[in-house]
């Protein structure tokens, strides 16, 4: 079955470019376009996409507010599409429930791969720009050292959280900890539930904000 995608951007040329790129993939189908956040909410309700590519600055309702409103909508994964001059919004978008983000001039193959990754239920945290932005903006966020939720984690769940914060996939974490990948997936689910988080990207932010990882230290 094809991955159903809606593109939300107020610039027609940006929507057209993304549609052309995604059209190269046999397993991806663009089922709708939106010109602002409010339109995006309607498109999600009508089209039931698997993935929503969301611009940030749009009229009527911006991408941040639209992402917040979609946070509890099952079945749709939001990828925020940004430009370097809008970087200050990225972490806020991830807190709002986005599962990742792309830079608008990303290579076509990265955009296609991103859609596939989030459609599988994973988060887009590996590109180098993601790490750089998290380093920059989480470093400026208020620290939450000693968050009591950390005490609820088992040592293995804490190890998994550190692996995610370092940008590792489940397979990489499994190899590093000498575990089965299915076991790591179970640990990830329990860890997210205990911390009240909804995605791996939010787990990365949590790890930075609580001081588990220092900005600039987490690398592949």
UniProtKB/TrEMBL annotation:
Residues 146-211 form the HTH luxR-type domain. GO terms for biological process: phosphorelay signal transduction system; regulation of DNA-templated transcription. The modification 4-aspartylphosphate is found at residue 55. Keywords: DNA-binding, Phosphoprotein, Transcription, Transcription regulation. The keyword DNA-binding applies. GO terms for molecular function: DNA binding. Pfam families: GerE (PF00196), Response_reg (PF00072). InterPro entries: CheY-like_superfamily, NreC/VraR/RcsB-like_REC, Sig_transdc_resp-reg_C-effctor, Sig_transdc_resp-reg_receiver, Tscrpt_reg_LuxR_C, WalR-like. Residues 4-119 form the Response regulatory domain. This is LuxR family two component transcriptional regulator. It comes from Solirubrobacter pauli.
């Amino acid at each position: 079955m094809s991955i159903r995608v809606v593109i939300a951007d107020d610039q027609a040329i940006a929507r057209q470019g993304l549609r052309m790129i995604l059209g190269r993939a046999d397993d991806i189908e663009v089922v709708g376009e939106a010109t602002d956040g409010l339109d995006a909410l309607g498109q999600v309700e009508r089209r039931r996409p698997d993935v929503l590519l969301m611009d940030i600055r749009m009229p009527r309702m911006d991408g941040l507010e639209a992402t917040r409103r979609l946070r509890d909508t099952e079945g749709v994964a939001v990828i925020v599409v940004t430009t370097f001059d809008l970087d200050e919004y990225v972490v806020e978008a991830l807190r709002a429930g986005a599962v990742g983000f792309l830079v608008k001039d990303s290579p076509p193959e990265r955009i296609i791969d991103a859609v596939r990754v989030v459609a599988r239920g994973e988060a887009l945290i590996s590109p180098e720009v993601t790490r750089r932005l998290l380093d920059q903006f989480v470093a400026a966020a208020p620290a939450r050292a000693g968050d009591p939720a950390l005490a609820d984690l088992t040592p293995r769940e804490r190890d998994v959280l550190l692996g995610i914060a370092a940008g590792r996939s489940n397979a990489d974490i499994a190899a590093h900890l000498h575990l089965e990948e299915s076991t790591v997936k179970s640990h990830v689910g329990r860890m997210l539930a205990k911390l009240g988080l909804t995605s791996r990207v939010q787990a990365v932010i949590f790890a930075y904000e609580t001081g588990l990882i220092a900005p600039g230290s987490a690398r592949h």
